[in-house]
Amino acid sequence: MSAAGAERRSAREVAIFLTSAARVRSPNPKSQAMSEIYFTHAKWHVKPGKRDEFVAAWQDLGKVFGKLTNQSGRGTLIQSLDDPDIFHSFGPWPSLESIKAARADPAAQAAIERLRALCVEATPGAHRLVLEIEP
């Protein structure tokens, strides 16, 4: 398509094109072809003035998880641009059992409690992949 032709496309047409061009992947509950994929995700509302201490504590939690068997291998911590006291953490895990085992580990429990103590609110949870879209 020429540049002039692309300019004439409406936003709706572009959205439809992009949507149809994306590859959509979803675990099929009726099929064993794709196994369940699990994630941990937490929202952390950090107490004012405790952000640096929270980030250091989250790094320490990552070190604890890194010593466990069946650990995820990676985790991500992101910070809100609208409210810098809000963080979200997430990461994939090989199984729901590995998440439960990690949370039952005494060192992990202590590290998670250290994080909670630095927060006004903490909402960690376990989740499963429902849909993944790849352009």
Can you walk through the features of this model?
This protein has about 140 residues and is of the alpha+beta class. The chain has a single domain, classed as Alpha-Beta Plaits (2-Layer Sandwich). It has 5 helices and 6 strands. A 4-stranded antiparallel β-sheet has the order 3-4-2-5. Strands 1-6 form a two-stranded antiparallel sheet. Helix 3 (about 50-65) packs antiparallel against helix 5. The protein is globular and about 40 Å long. The two termini are about 20 Å apart. Mean pLDDT is about 80; it is low at about 1-25 and about 30-35.
Brief description of this entry?
The chain is an alpha+beta fold and 135 residues long. Helices cover 40% and strands 27% of the residues.
State the share of residues found in helices, binned by percent. Answer: 40-55%
Distance between the termini: 19 Å
Strand elements, count: 6
Sheet having the most strands: 4 strands, antiparallel
Low-confidence stretches: 1-26, 28-33
Calculate the mean pLDDT score and round it: 80
Write down the domain tally.
1
Radius of gyration: 20 Å
User: What count of helical segments does DSSP give?
Assistant: 5
Strand content: 25-35%
| Class inferred from helices and paired strands | alpha+beta
Annotated CATH topology: Alpha-Beta Plaits
Going across the biggest sheet, name each strand in turn.
Answer: 3-4-2-5
CATH class placement: Alpha Beta
What gross morphology would you assign?
A: globular
Run of helices and strands: HHEEHEEHHEE
Please state the second-level CATH architecture.
2-Layer Sandwich
